[in-house]
Amino acid sequence: MAGADSPSAALRRRDLCARGIRLAGKMRSDVVDLLDTYVERQGLDASASVAAVEGVPPAAVERWDEQTGTQRLLENLAAYRAFRALLAQMLEEQQEQLGEADAALGRALAAVLLQVSAFAYHLEELLRLESRGPPSEEGDGPPPRPQGLFEQKLRGLGVLRELAQWAVRSARDLRQLAKPGPGAGSAPSPAESP
Amino acid sequence: DSHVQYERIGADVTMKCGSMDWDAAVTWTANGTDIDESHLNGSYLILKNVDLTQSGQYACYEGSSWHLKYQTYLRVGTPPREPVLMCRSNNYPKGFYCSWHLPTPTYIPNTFNISVIHGTKEMVCEKDAVPKNRCHIRYLQLFSTVKYKVTLTVTNALGKNFTTLTFDEFAIVKPDPPESVVAKPVPNNPRRLEVSWQNPSSWPDPESFPLKFFLRYRPLILDQWQHVELSDGTSHTITDAYAGKEYIIQVAAKDNDIGTWSDWSVAVHATPWTEEPKHLTTEAQITETTSASTSSFMAPPTTKICDKGAVVGSGAVAVCWTAGLVVAAYSVLFI
């Protein structure tokens, strides 16, 4: 843990957290807008219940308040790496399906993909500060592609919904990380207000 | 022996006198008062189109012996209408509560049963002692996209009814209003008001789950509100207040990312600082200051004492002068 608690590391962590929180906020807002557009363009029902789709990391978590800083970073990073791959596939699918007919949707997807990549980078940097370093991505194959047009659309819906939830969760995770107290990698800070 | 009987408003009720034959001679009482024979059909008591006033203790006595043969407590009421249910999280991310009530009374006892299902999981909503008709639940999972389904069933002796609410975790988040709202004038600033407040005490973790705020203010004499949205901090300075006008100010809170705005806080009133009006002449100022310190204890200023008695000869002047000294001495004491 050499250097992890140095003043410059603490400053860098706070800075990365602050930027990450802002990015998560923007990402959520863009994903929510994209969801509306996606539902409309793909002819889906907004209230459709999408069962947990394979390969889409669920944002739901138990005992969230008990997680350590490192756990938060690792789970977030795994999720955003998965979203990066999923969104890349969605972009390909969208171009295959609609091509130039819906350039706006393609651009919106690409913009979100960029933000997801940027956020993943922030998380990797924060993990480097933990002297842990981010886990390697070797062996992470691309997610399985759904067969059939309708299944692809449903997966797209699932991806965007979970990403919207993750964006909210990530902002909360980073705020926990940014709290002053014992280093992010150690045990969680003592219980909050009654 | 004792017995309770529930009947709907408007129903026709027939009471039998226990095991007595139809043609037995009996007397019925309602809350101890004899019931007229016109309501009897043989030994049966007939109550047509019952209303709430007919609730009470009914008893039947054998004609000659006055033995109590049957007793019942009649309670007239209605089956329950569809209940009104509301769920809300004012302490996110700890959990949420649901509260309910009936739109119209049934006049008879009701039991409420609430079930909360999250996906396939059944959760337990713990009933609160106070207020009744409320229960709370702790979140087991956060950031879930799976909806919660809450079903409330109300049952009484005359029927049952239910209602269902379906919502997701974020939608029901609504903090309590901000607390301890204080508005103060700013010295030497006739158009400013300094407003400060605190996070609602029910919000458990404002650091990780920061609130944003909405301030509204208007002078009492106008109907139009001014609005300011504040993404952080628990204070704000209004800089465009109308000089000298009393203002009414309120604040509302919302989680930064999810849910809905709280109700408005208790209103506070404040008037911006205004300059004190200046005195017109310096002489009047001096007399005023002395009279201000002495008015509660003494007669009005020196000049008046002297005026009363016309100055006649040196004696009077001396009196006047002395009086002035006394007043001055007292003034020094009281300043």
UniProtKB/TrEMBL annotation, chain A:
Keywords assigned by UniProt, alphabetized: Cytoplasm, Developmental protein, Differentiation, Growth factor, Neurogenesis
Organism field: Onychorhynchus coronatus (Royal flycatcher)
Segments of this protein annotated with the region Disordered: 131-151, 175-194
Family from the record: Belongs to the CNTF family.
Highest taxon of source: Eukaryota
Ranges annotated as biased composition (Low complexity): 185-194
BP GO terms, sorted: astrocyte activation; ciliary neurotrophic factor-mediated signaling pathway; negative regulation of neuron apoptotic process; positive regulation of axon regeneration
Protein name per Swiss-Prot or TrEMBL: Ciliary neurotrophic factor
Its job: CNTF is a survival factor for various neuronal cell types. Seems to prevent the degeneration of motor axons after axotomy.
Subcellular location: Cytoplasm
UniProtKB/TrEMBL annotation, chain B:
Gene Ontology BP, a term: positive regulation of cell population proliferation
Lineage: superkingdom: Eukaryota
One cellular component term from this protein's GO annotations in UniProt: ciliary neurotrophic factor receptor complex
Transmembrane segments: 310-333
Family the UniProt entry places it in: Belongs to the type I cytokine receptor family. Type 3 subfamily.
PANTHER family: CILIARY NEUROTROPHIC FACTOR RECEPTOR SUBUNIT ALPHA, CYTOKINE RECEPTOR
Protein name per its UniProtKB record: Ciliary neurotrophic factor receptor subunit alpha
Record organism: Onychorhynchus coronatus (Royal flycatcher)
Gene encoding the protein: Cntfr
